[in-house]
């Protein structure tokens, strides 16, 4: 399998800065990036990107939002439209600050949403953010806590807060079937059932009704499953639903692959995608692309060797599954295949 490079972007000429995370805007017109220099970059992709040319296009930064503190979480507005400034928004979380909603085109602050520890009155910094499909609410994941905010209530605290489990280890009220402890590192909503999946650095996955505003459906751990000895892992960094909503893909730090769970039977490992070459502490993202209306799809994931690997229809397999194809995509670590 081969691929043609259409465009490139540099964070710095010296190589001292680098991309920590990149994602597409919902309308496919912009790239939203987090850099190691604690900045949020917006790149507007030229409309002639797909035209034939000898050399790749050089992308330049359209907007830059800077700060002294790292960006812990970032997500674009689900109805992002480059032609409508009211929707061209990016939500981010930084330490010791409220959650901020900025224009991705000007950097201007549009609103802020405080998440405060009632015991210390200090800001809680989420490690994961996601919007609901409608775009009128967003969900923040922090230490053993899922918080839901109303976008129309800037400056106000969350309208709902769900503790996912006791914060203290060994608490007698801890029930491993419905409770999970730890920093919630990733969130994903299944659009048809509205089930919220939340993953933690403690290697647990929790499933919640009503996009986090309902009961806990169940909790399971990827620790000690059949894939653990093969691909390893030390904390969940990303979870994504399959297009049909029946399966959940799970990525971890220091892991050489992805877990694939059948969510119709909560906590049942179906298969694992191996050979990713991604054993690193850094977050290594993956993406899922539908290939047919029958639920067929491909999983694309980058490795520390600069290669992109593709697995076709992993949900048709059981046990270990090697990549279906791979190609050179980068001359360095490939963290985000968005």
Automatic annotation (TrEMBL):
InterPro entries: SWT21/TCAB1_mRNA_Telomere (IPR051150), WD40/YVTN_repeat-like_dom_sf (IPR015943), WD40_repeat_dom_sf (IPR036322). Transmembrane segments: none annotated. This is Anaphase-promoting complex subunit 4 WD40 domain-containing protein. It comes from Exophiala mesophila.
